[in-house]
Amino acid sequence: MGYTTQFCAFIAERKNARRWPDFPRASCSMEGSRPMSFTDKALTCRDCATEFCFSAAEQEFFSVKGLVNEPKRCPNCRVLFRLKKEGKDPSSAMTVECADCGVSTVVPFKPKGLRPVYCGACLTNHPRIPAADTRQLVSAS
To answer: Nearest-CA neighbor of 58 among 38, 77, 76?
Structure first.
């Protein structure tokens, strides 16, 4: 028997041999399951101890992404925590009022006044304006 024949026989034996026990696999099919319904929840922020709403849309987003834990911080404290984690100065975050609803929100930048600033809830209702269009709006006024 030549070297290649021995090698091919060895490979065939290895393919047929089971090195690991055959564990039952979890089924990932969603057949027969009912859609989950989410309702708004009132949670308390661990940093500032204020109450914030964990909306049904956020819960659905967490579920789709596979996140199992509820948020521990309110949206404003999340921005500040993210800045601290990135090594940036938390004082660079600005508190501004939403252009639509007037709620105060924290943003990780200093607004220049060229574009309106929205809170997280209102931001989803507005399309993003490209920078070139913003210059045209500012020069026209």
So the answer is: 38
User: pLDDT for 10-23, tens place per residue?
Assistant: 555 655 554 544 44
Do residues 118 and 100 lie in contact, with contact meaning Cβ atoms separated by under 8 Å? Answer: yes
CB atoms within 10 A of CB 45: 17
The DSSP symbol for 73 reads S
Could you read off the pLDDT of 92-111 as tens digits, one per residue? 778 888 888 888 888 888 88
Q: What angle do CA 114, 120, 125 make, to 5 degrees?
A: 75
Backbone angles phi, psi at 95, to 5 degrees: -95, 120
- How many C-beta atoms lie closer than 10 Å to residue 105's C-beta? 20
**Distance (Å, rounded) from C-alpha 38 to C-alpha 119?**
22
Q: Residue 134 and residue 46: Cα distance in Å, rounded?
A: 38
Q: Are 39 and 68 in contact (CB under 8 A)?
A: no
> What are φ and ψ of residue 118, in 5° steps?
-115, 155
